[in-house]
Amino acid sequence: MIDFKKLKIPNAIVTLFGIIVIMTVMTWVIPGGNFERIQNPETGVTVVDASSFHIADEKTPVGLFKMFLCIQRGFVDSGSIIFLIFFAYFCVYSVTKTGSLHAAINVMLKRLRGRETMVIVIFMLIFALAGSTYGEWDTVYGLIPIFVGIAIAMGYDAMVGLAMTGMAVGIGFASATTNPFTIGIAQAIAELPIFSGLLFRAAVFAAFVGVGIWWTLRYAKRVKEHPEESLVYGEDMGLLEIDRSSLEKYEFTPKRQFTIFWLFATIIFIVFSTLKLGWYLDEMSAIFLCSGVLISIFWKMPPDEITENLIFTCRDIMIGALIVGFSRAIMVVLTEGNILDTIIYGMYQPLQHMPKWLAAEGMLVFQNIMNLFIPSGSGQATAVMPIMIPLADLVGLNRQIAILAYQFGDGYSNLFWPVGGIMVMAAIAHVPIGKWYRFFVPLFGIMLVMQAAFIALAVAIDYGPF
Question: CB–CB of 264/146 below 8 Å?
């Protein structure tokens, strides 16, 4: 019998490289094919024509050298995310070097002594709401180190810090209420009123976030009482380690108060500029870099020290940057081999011949699997929803149910599939991916059952409006 607790999962890079090799082999086995892409003149969104699939005249399998070229292209294509990770980490480390973060955490822990669980609940709700409402995701990379430090200082571990941030925002993103990158695009493609069906999705949000908080508190209590039972016990936390007993020496001076104010002002400005100015990854990276440099100058750090801090942070978080590049390379291989559309076409064919209740659950399974191949929420919406909507009409399902299946499948598995961003978050938190799976997989199993139950409920009540 297999002892899953002793089962060793390869590190993130080995896992992703293995997936790249498998996808490369698939380009030799699966015939290339294409859907025609058309632009909706009303929404401006480019989508596939569901009836246009055809096998390509020539196969374009990916050879050995081209596979490595795809990896290089993966790093080039994901450069914006890589630099965001580097510069966000540099900004946070610059604050940490001044002692401001330690001093702020010390003040917070004194005021909340004995109520540490409230910190977990409050911040998980905040991050979940951010993911659910305006599609927060990438900005959380820069906040993970802060909350890992807070969790450790409160007597928990890095896993709790990762759950407070990465898992919470991931659950919120999947339990979308008004997420413009998933619900907004999918409903536009389905020609439904934007953000319609909100009440049902609000119930989904409450249920899934509630279960996520319960799971985290359950683990946190065990770690607090028995530190040796931590899944990351003995792991080197590097600069994220904050010893609570050493916090007393950090006085929260006006200078440190201003530094913390500047850090939060930076984050607020990033959120504002993303929502109101249309800025994205490149601008976010520049803001973090600028903020880190200005904080360093404010504390009169010499240029050599600022440079050394940047080099140190890039070295410390290099694994996260590598994971981003290797993850992107998977999509490059599928695109170069011209098999992505063939996979989509082949997977949705069986759904056409199912009764509507089974087709709805089949859509859920389909979307969960597709998230391995298309981890982008908006990318998956434009590639898959033009196929799912006519299918829903064909079997007698409301279009809102097809969108719900897409929302579930695209969302929660982002915290499971190695290409969904969780590997990057775990690397930033210094949590080995195998340890993350030991924490999350049982919860993911619960969430899969909940997804199926909500889909069944949606079919039973004929979840609308159309």
Answer: no
Tokens of 268: 């607020």
Asked if residue 232 lies in contact with residue 431, where contact means CB atoms within 8 angstroms, the answer is yes
User: Which of 129, 130, 104, 428 shows the shortest CA–CA distance to 272?
Assistant: 130
Residue 182 DSSP class: I
Residue tagged 């500029």 (tokens): 273
pLDDT by residue, tens only, the chain of 466 residues: 445 455 566 777 888 899 899 999 999 999 999 888 777 676 666 666 767 888 988 889 999 999 999 999 999 988 888 898 899 889 988 988 898 888 888 888 888 777 889 989 999 999 999 889 888 787 788 788 888 988 988 889 999 999 999 999 999 999 989 888 888 888 888 888 888 888 999 999 999 999 999 999 999 999 999 999 999 988 877 666 776 667 778 889 999 999 999 988 988 898 788 778 888 788 988 999 999 999 999 999 999 999 999 998 888 888 888 888 888 898 899 889 998 888 888 877 888 778 888 999 999 998 998 888 888 777 788 878 888 888 888 788 888 999 999 999 888 999 998 877 888 899 889 899 889 999 999 999 999 999 999 999 999 999 976 5
Overall pTM surpassing 0.85 (yes/no): no
Written as six digits, the tokens of 338 are 């011209």
Instruction: Give 203-243 as a DSSP string.
Output: HHHHHHHHHHHHHHHHHHHHHHH-GGG-TTTT---GGG---
Task: Spell out the domain ranges in the chain.
Answer: 12-461
Cα–Cα distance between 410 and 414 in angstroms, integer?
Answer: 7
Six token digits for residue 295: 């904080």
Residue type, 427: A
Residue with tokens 């750090």: 301
Q: Tell me if the bond preceding 465 is cis, omega within 30° of 0.
A: yes
Q: Which residues contact 436 (CB under 8 A, 6 or more apart)?
A: 159, 162, 422, 426
